[in-house]
Amino acid sequence: MVSDGLWERIEPLLPRKERRFRHPGRKPLPDRQVLCGIMYVLHTGIQWEYLPGELGFGSGMTCWRRLRDWNEADVWQRLHEVLLAELNAAAKLDWSRAVIDSSHVRALKGGFATGPSPVDRGRACSKHHLITDGRGTPLAVILTVGNRNDVTQLLPLLDAIPPVRGRVGRPRRKPDSLFADRGYDHDIYRDYVRARGIVPAIARRGTGLGTYRWIVERSFAWLHGFKRLRIRWERRADIHEAFLHLACCLITLRQINSFC
After folding, report:
1. Tens place of pLDDT per residue across the chain (260 aa)
2. Could you tell me which residues come within 8 angstroms of residue 32 by beta carbon, excluding any fewer than 6 positions away?
3. Which strand (E) or helix (H) includes residue 169?
4. CA pair distance 260, 257, nearest whole angstrom
5. The whole model's pTM is what?
6. Counting beta carbons within 10 angstroms of the beta carbon of residue 173, is it exposed (0 to 12), middle (13 to 18) or buried (19 or more)?
7. Dihedral (Cα; 113, 114, 115, 118), 10-degree rounding
8. What are phi and psi of 36, to 5 degrees?
């Protein structure tokens, strides 16, 4: 399940743990096998405790701990930056525009960063806020409570775009223009965007985003194609965020492979 291309990129980023000389205990399961288990859960949505042992991925708790540790070590963020740099070096990132939007996901077990849904009869939910380049490649994603207003995450999303290397000169962190629907229609935020040297293309009340909306909607379809992200099962927000960032990495890798 873990391709050679993905493993070559991620292996140098994984933290190393030295085994104790005395009483080393059981030898830990190889990282690549555990990563297969994590991706199996991400793709299928299966609960950790039901991860099939015969597949050789280790127990669900082993995979959960490794996912937690790697997320704390910023493995997914650094992997995403590596992949974005590859796309940028190949001139396959469209910096002429960025598109932002959000999507609700039900949180059946509650937990941190959940709140009453304004679109699902007040049930507990979370919100995925996404910004993509002009081709739909994820640049950054943020998790918030379900009743958080979209416009409050406009500037945090812009700030969350990592410095993207891969070309001569300074790393790039901002697009030329920003497209958003009428949920982000506030003149003060247009001024904030302009102050950052970005042209705001935010729809006014009573209008729509037009032909550019499909770009981010398609990216959400890619993101929620991973069954573990359609419903939030994790009470801990950091575990759900780890899945979110891993999914963005996998989508970015698909973009690289599609241009090869």
Report:
1. 789 999 999 999 999 876 666 666 667 789 999 999 999 999 999 999 999 988 889 899 999 999 999 999 999 999 999 999 999 999 999 999 999 999 999 998 888 888 887 877 778 899 999 999 999 999 999 999 988 899 999 999 999 999 999 888 899 999 999 999 988 989 999 999 999 999 999 988 777 666 778 899 999 999 999 999 999 999 999 999 999 999 999 999 999 988 76
2. 2, 7, 11
3. none
4. 5
5. 0.92
6. middle
7. 110
8. -60, -40
Question: What does the alpha-carbon distance between residue 183 and residue 73 come to, in Å, rounded to a whole number?
Answer: 34
Q: Locate 120 and state its tokens.
A: 């699902």
If you write DSSP's letter for every residue of 188-241 in order, what string do you get? Answer: HHHHHHHHTT-EEEEPPTT---GGGHHHHHHHHHHHTTSGGGTEE--SSHHHHH
Report the first-to-last Cα separation within the chain, whole angstroms. Answer: 20
Report how far apart, in Å, the C-alpha atoms of 183 and of each of 8, 58, 121, 198 are: 41, 44, 20, 19
The candidate with the shortest Cα–Cα distance to 238, out of 57, 111, 108, is: 111
- At 210, the amino acid letter reads G
